[in-house]
């Protein structure tokens, strides 16, 4: 979403009307220039009559713990007949898909205060802040819309920050073929064997690997299929869906002419089970069903990492042979 189209939309028509106190721009009007800054500090709320003090802001580019604060640095405002400025700011938070997640409403930027000395920056009286969950990692954006009610002038700015995907659990419970420094995406016992899907520590940066391993617990895996040296999303595909009465999660890869699919089906009114199915073309050649008590399942975390969706996934038959 561009600033131009966003302002045109009017934030739910919050900008469609001009307050009665706003006057026509005149030759005496001062340009108001504003820049929104995202920090890891709590938002500032300066009491109306409290004296201003210098504020230093250190911008951040990544919301490491999901928490953020936003302030506006500005200069220029036009005083009214009493020598006081009346400037407001509205903050808007957009998620990584451009959807509006939060709108602050109009807050005090510099209100009933004399204008700062010409050319000197000030930090606005009120900021915004909060915590972003990892449901939509990627580049989020904060817009600030500043309006000077005396001059009628406005200023719009934007800043972005990266919201990382939630960290995967390391280790996991019970036996698995994952190493100590790897995360367990999936693991379970199937008969005398163990199936595990593991990820490297740098998997979140798409420079690491996923590994599918199968074999007897505590022994060298009979199969160790990895994606080293390439984006795991180029080797594996993932499909996940959910509704009120069930969920499905599938992780798929191809090894030669064979298609492997790690699956988890959980439904109230349909078949339930987890395991691995292997097909050659349309023919099932191997099937391993998990012992329910041994399952560690974090496959749903893959929805955060840009894996191919259902259009690239073969929907194999997961139910045991009749």
Explain briefly what this protein structure is.
This protein is mainly beta. Helix content is 3%, strand content 41%.
List keywords for this structure.
322 residues; mainly beta; five-stranded antiparallel sheet
How are the secondary structure elements laid out?
Layout: H1 3-13, E1 33-39, E2 67-75, E3 85-94, E4 100-103, E5 107-113, E6 122-123, E7 128-131, E8 138-148, E9 154-163, E10 183-190, E11 193-199, E12 210-215, E13 223-226, E14 237-243, E15 246-255, E16 258-267, E17 273-280, E18 283-289, E19 296-297
Antiparallel strand pairs: 1-2, 2-6, 2-7, 3-4, 3-5, 3-8, 8-9, 10-11, 10-19, 11-12, 12-13, 14-15, 15-16, 16-17, 17-18
User: What is the N-to-C succession of helices and strands?
Assistant: HEEEEEEEEEEEEEEEEEEE
- Work out the number of β strands: 19
Shape: elongated
Distance between the termini: 52 Å
**Which percent band covers the strand fraction?**
35-45%
Relative helix content: under 10%
Task: Write structural notes for this entry.
With 322 residues, the chain is mainly beta. The protein is 3% helix and 41% strand. The strands form 4 sheets. Strands 3, 4, 5, 8 and 9 form a 5-stranded antiparallel β-sheet that branches. Strands 13-12-11-10-19 form a 5-stranded antiparallel β-sheet, with no helix packed on it. Strands 14-15-16-17-18 form a 5-stranded antiparallel β-sheet, with no helix packed on it. A hairpin with a 7-residue loop joins strand 12 (210-215) and strand 13 (223-226). The longest helix is centred in the N-terminal third of the chain and has 11 residues, at 3-13. The radius of gyration is 27 Å and the shape is elongated. The model is unreliable at 1-27 (pLDDT under 50).
